[in-house]
Amino acid sequence: MAYTLRELAAVAQATMQGNAESEIDAVAPLDRAGARHIAYCASGHYRSLIPESTAGALVLLPEDADLFPGNALLCHDPRTAFARIANLLHPRETVVPGRHPSAVIDPSALVSESASIGPQAVIEAEAVIESGVVVGPGVVVGARCVIGANTRLEARAVIMHDCLIGKRCVISPGAVIGGEGFGYVREQDGHWLVVPQLGRVVIGDDVDVGANTTIDRGALGDTVIGEGVKLDNLIQIAHNVKIGDNTAMAGCVGVAGSAVIGKRCMIAGGVGIMGHITVGDDVEVTAMSFLKSSVDGPGRFSSSLPATSADIWARNVGRFRHFDQLARRLRRAEQTIKQILSGGKH
Amino acid sequence: MAYTLRELAAVAQATMQGNAESEIDAVAPLDRAGARHIAYCASGHYRSLIPESTAGALVLLPEDADLFPGNALLCHDPRTAFARIANLLHPRETVVPGRHPSAVIDPSALVSESASIGPQAVIEAEAVIESGVVVGPGVVVGARCVIGANTRLEARAVIMHDCLIGKRCVISPGAVIGGEGFGYVREQDGHWLVVPQLGRVVIGDDVDVGANTTIDRGALGDTVIGEGVKLDNLIQIAHNVKIGDNTAMAGCVGVAGSAVIGKRCMIAGGVGIMGHITVGDDVEVTAMSFLKSSVDGPGRFSSSLPATSADIWARNVGRFRHFDQLARRLRRAEQTIKQILSGGKH
Amino acid sequence: MAYTLRELAAVAQATMQGNAESEIDAVAPLDRAGARHIAYCASGHYRSLIPESTAGALVLLPEDADLFPGNALLCHDPRTAFARIANLLHPRETVVPGRHPSAVIDPSALVSESASIGPQAVIEAEAVIESGVVVGPGVVVGARCVIGANTRLEARAVIMHDCLIGKRCVISPGAVIGGEGFGYVREQDGHWLVVPQLGRVVIGDDVDVGANTTIDRGALGDTVIGEGVKLDNLIQIAHNVKIGDNTAMAGCVGVAGSAVIGKRCMIAGGVGIMGHITVGDDVEVTAMSFLKSSVDGPGRFSSSLPATSADIWARNVGRFRHFDQLARRLRRAEQTIKQILSGGKH
């Protein structure tokens, strides 16, 4: 559906330049946008593409306005403005209510008339599927789960029994919510005795969970994911973890059991977070780091090493193995120098 | 179902304090347990909560007995005792035998009368499903697999053809057992020629496999998971790996091809284990470490770096890049000092 | 099906030694091969097993020919020769065309007569399934996807809407192609605004994707996987990544958004690749390394630290925390030494 530049300016809270009545159908990349497309440029890196753009309109920083002779929307945060415009021009498909005949729905489940239940889905006893929910193909919703209004469970996602998912969430394909936590005690003969995992996963509103990400149910209490949390793909959240509102984690992060993570944290890809630690609000952890002990926020933490040429690396690693001795040698050298300087006997 | 304190004391091998006939229904966390709940405290960290607990009974260390006026079970390992009690009070749901009409079961498969086959499951030709097995919703069991008695395959788990799973195993949702190993040889023009993966995955009794964990089939021989092994979520086990009995691995571990891992090892989260190495019995590897070469057990190994403030980290990393030169400079300084001390000509 | 040694020599481009008419049924490991099996030895490590092998034939290096009195094929790359022979002796099962009655196929989908659609599969509107494709049990193919000829989608793989998969690909069980990329902008109040993910995943011919691996669709443009790329299990490929032809990645690799990776790269297990960087052709990255910035190829890069005894490690890590100060102390010691040598006043 088309919108005028004027309408887009309103949603983007931007200043207009050019023809307010020109119509835009879709968003597009800066270098491939056509006459009915809108694109954006927020950084110097792509600035040189602005003058040549054939877009019907651009979202630009005010200081770049002169670079483009066509229609433009000017604002201080073109990326956010563009995201608002993209959500307007490309809304999610309307939910078509109904139950695919191949879906298996327990008679005791409460499924809203306005929900869409896809082919091969399974909804177990006493589950509650609220209004506007989309249950994708092959999804499994366990017994007594509650899926909040307008949430989407994508293809083959699994929600195990008794878990609660908030409203407007997206659970991506293959994600597993509510698997049993990894809880064992070791017997003296080396065997592991399982500790029953009796808690749930409780997920707030507006949470997104990535593809094949796993969130284990709590052992005694619950695993709790706050409102607005965004989790990328292939993340592991262990039992009894708590994640504060609006925290975001990139792909391949692992969070060990009972860690408590604050609000608005940003955890980059590949990070490991130790169990039983507390992470304050507004903490950032850089990619591939290992957060081993509790930290207060705000703050930015890191322990990753960037790759270099493998032969240089091998030499440095060789030194690292003897780091402690090397530091001791330096200490001795300093002491000797001090003796020399003091004129003491050598 | 309720048990008396006397019955719980017997299963926990603990000393009783208080009313032996008081009844307990369920386990609960120390700070939320009610009159018919039992909780535990094993560590100093939570000791301050003991006196205020409203639990019907507590499992405590003998030295903490005086802190609690109510019913208590005293023993030297409250966590293990509590795990035994929790297993008694919260047994797994009884398996309801039967085959859901939506399941697709090949006529040549041998499915025990006492097994439970869930909705949308697929059981392929000549597979064997032994007594008491639970095949969850949407599970796929490939041709000629054998699933041992009382094993549970949870929602959407996939067991590819010809794999053997022992008795009393739990394969968590989304786990993939028996995918093809990553085996290729490189042609001179850069193309990869696939090496057929002709082995199986053979899993012993009492093995637990976590959600979305993957275990590849062997190339020529088999991938072998010993008895009592416990694997957490999102673990990758490559082709021809052997894992010894009762070894446990936490989430996000990756084990490369043909690694041989001993018994009773404890591999913490995020660890990488190199291919073709041998790891002895009773080896521990700390979280986020990289085990690159063979090690004997028992022993504890590590290579992880804990995160610190990002700006301090950046300075240290900058130094690391020149570690080799720095070590050479120290060597020269030491030699010069020696020359000075020996009164040699400078 | 049996082949003569002569036939195997032809496919392996090897020199024969022994009885050209002897028949071989199957490949086997060197130490377990019987009279109708063929095995190989390419490395010194297993050379001692050659003389005792009971195999019907061996593939050997020419210099090892004298070690084995039986039938042999001699060539300079026994592993590649063996792979060719294994592909001949163990071809994939013939595809049996047809549609399982439990599969749900949208009437607007175009499914080739020669394709095989497994039980519980879902094929959505306007999807195209070309000739010889195998759609495994429980697979989901989204609307408007195109699956190229002779590709296999294994059990429970998910291909989200509008994605293109080339010919002769293998998408392993549980893999998710075309999940939504992790794209958000942060509002001033800390909430995350989703950026619609409007691109596709475009996968070339002869690509293999491992079990539970995830490849996200592009935000505006596409995520592109080149021809002949091989991806192992549990890999995360973020939105708008480009991977060049014949690049291979081992398990648990994570590639962040918009990274551009060259041709014929070899990325070992557990590697993290930063977003928005460019990696040249023929780049190798060693296991568990973090490629943080762009590199040209060819070249080999590393940043992993091998595990050592945990107590030695702890001492070295302690030193690392003060690396910057230590380097400064060395600098001062060097300067003092220079002053001493120059006879300046101390």
Write the layout of secondary structure elements.
The structure is a homotrimer of 346-residue chains.
Chain A: E1 3-4, H1 5-12, E2 15-17, E3 23-24, E4 26-27, E5 37-41, E6 57-60, E7 71-74, H2 78-89, E8 98-99, E9 104-105, E10 110-111, E11 116-117, E12 122-123, E13 128-129, E14 134-135, E15 140-141, E16 146-147, E17 152-153, E18 158-159, E19 164-165, E20 170-171, E21 176-179, E22 184-186, E23 192-194, E24 201-203, E25 208-209, E26 214-216, E27 223-225, E28 230-231, E29 236-237, E30 242-243, E31 248-249, E32 254-255, E33 260-261, E34 266-267, E35 272-273, E36 278-279, E37 283-285, E38 290-291, E39 299-302, E40 308-309, H3 310-320, H4 323-341
Parallel strand pairs in A: 4-5, 5-6, 6-7, 8-11, 9-12, 10-13, 11-14, 12-15, 13-16, 14-17, 15-18, 16-19, 17-20, 18-21, 19-24, 20-25, 21-26, 24-27, 25-28, 26-29, 27-30, 28-31, 29-32, 30-33, 31-34, 32-35, 33-36, 34-37, 35-38, 37-39
Antiparallel strand pairs in A: 1-3, 2-7, 22-23
Sheet of most strands of chain A: 11 strands, parallel
How far from one another are the termini of chain A? 88 Å
Strand content of chain A: 25-35%
**Spatial extent as radius of gyration of chain A:** 27 Å
Based on CA inertia axes, which overall geometry of chain A fits? flat
Q: Biggest interface between protein chains, with counts per chain?
A: A-B, 72 and 73 residues
Structural class of chain A: alpha/beta
Q: How many domain regions of chain A? A: 3
- If strands are numbered along the chain, what order do they take across the biggest sheet of chain A? 8-11-14-17-20-25-28-31-34-37-39
The third-level CATH topology of the largest domain in chain A is UDP N-Acetylglucosamine Acyltransferase, domain 1
Class of the largest domain in chain A, according to the CATH hierarchy? Mainly Beta
Output the number of helix runs of chain A: 4
